[in-house]
Amino acid sequence: xxxxxxxxxxxxxxxxxxxxxxxxxxxxxxxxxxxxxxxxxxxxxxxxxxxxxxxxxxxxxxxxxxxxxxxxxxxxxxxxxxxxxxxxxxxxxxxxxxxxxxxxxxxxxxxxxxxxxxxxxxxxxxxxxxxxxxxxxxxxxxxxxxxxxxxxxxxxxxxxxxxxxxxxxxxxxxxxxxxxxxxxxxxxxxxxxxxxxxxxxxxxxxxxxxxxxxxxxxxxxxxxxxxxxxxxxxxxxxxxxxxxxxxxxxxxxxxxxxxxxxxxxxxxxxxxxxxxxxxxxxxxxxxxxxxxxxxxxxxxxxxxxxxxxxxxxxxxxxxxxxxxxxxxxxxxxxxxxxxxxxxxxxxxxxxxxxxxxxxxxxxxxxxxxxxxxxxxxxxxxxxxxxxxxxxxxxxxxxxxxxxxxxxxxxxxxxxxxxxxxxxxxxxxxxxxxxxxxxxxxxxxxxxxxxxxxxxxxxxxxxxxxxxxxxxxxxxxxxxxxxxxxxxxxxxxxxxxxxxxxxxxxxxxxxxxxxxxxxxxxxxxxxxxxxxxxxxxxxxxxxxxxxxxxxx
Length: 551
Ligand code: FBP
Description:
Layout: H1 5-11, H2 19-22, E1 25-32, H3 39-45, E2 53-59, E3 70-75, H4 83-97, E4 102-106, H5 111-114, E5 118-121, H6 123-127, H7 148-160, E6 163-170, H8 172-187, E7 193-198, H9 216-237, E8 241-246, H10 253-262, E9 266-267, H11 270-275, H12 280-296, E10 302-307, H13 310-313, H14 315-327, H15 333-340, H16 343-353, H17 356-364, H18 367-375, H19 390-407, E11 417-422, H20 424-427, H21 433-451, E12 457-462, E13 472-477, E14 482-487, E15 490-495, H22 505-519, H23 535-538, H24 543-549
Parallel strand pairs: 3-4, 3-6, 6-7, 7-12, 8-10, 8-11, 9-10
Antiparallel strand pairs: 1-2, 2-13, 4-5, 12-13, 14-15
1,6-di-O-phosphono-beta-D-fructofuranose (FBP) binds near residues 78, 201, 247, 308 and 386.
């Protein structure tokens, strides 16, 4: 296989580990835990894995003599930079426990476990993937491990391969399912431990014990580099407003962090929109105000960041989407009629089926967007919010608003737009030093949890704004992160999703500075991720982490 010069040089990078993981490890039990909410319900659902203590690793005196252990690993959900290093950490960790240990990767995500598709990960095979981005070593997938029949099917292959522990690398949903699986195998005395690792570029799997999900650091650095480049272009040509949608299904952590790294003129934060119950028109009006003010200063250019999940946080859009989901549910009479109808009549007719408020919103949308809301649906029949071109929706609405303002004399400038969506280009980037080290440490931590016979735990590596050797590794019971939430009409135990906190330090810093950034041109140009060079450039963490930990 031909590889690039960077890949070649990067292959030699030795990820840094916390001090406690470098030699023999001593495991210190902390206090017993309880779930963040709904303690009684969660305890009842997880009798075998509830209330376990927090675990912290310290430097030990001597290594335990552990028999060889076979371990399985699954990559679940969207790609995030560093997944290959989690696998490298697990591999090196279990080989350190006993050189005869083996690692099996289940192919194509959780479905590989159910369908018995796997591959042994050997030292030679793994070599080419160390410190690289992507999940292509074994592939990923979005099959949900939820049914007992799937757990039993999985157990067959685990028994066949004599696998004693399974590591699930995933986001909040996948780790929720990892916890259910751990409990199921524990109750069955199946002899299989289940350990989770926190992954997602969205950054919404975090709490007191999980400071950040891996991949967030690298992905936002890639987006910030691109935003910085566009800002320089905008400031050079001085003729375009760039509307940039940023990935992140629900939470706006990516948008907020990118704003902190680049200081653009406008950044929308979905959580704030929901808190203030802002309408789409109010958002558009406030954007138009900034554009008009800049134009008054002779600056007919700027950059606006828009989080992917925005429309679901705008109350009237949320209501409209919910109504459309119900009306167009697969097999419903309305859906059948809608499909049979001539395309040119569809939207007008559908508006008559909506509540008056939602009909008004629906009719105010540009046709392309209204169409996207009715056509692009996921396998559950729901609107695929990530496919809605929110940046264009806002751009067109702002254009209309500015035309009105021009007539009334409130806008005297020009408004030319360019649209962008940054998402996939960040998910498989070569991991930053932070993600390379953090992921390797998470994988290594998982191997220590496995060696100690733990199940229902998630790898936790904390104190991440300090140099890596001072990081604190350990395990956190997944049940500790859970609460009960309504999903598809039923109350379910799930890991609480971490949205942007409006009283948190990162948002507060942003809110204190945004008015200045809006009018002045205070752009920051972070440039590309650096893998070699000064520590303050190469090993810096996200601004979010720095602000959160600067207590
Ligand atoms: P995970 O939560 O599984 O890590 O995925 C995150 C994400 O990248 C979102 O930001 C985005 O909305 C979604 O995946 C896109 O999914 P897909 O890869 O299926 O298009």
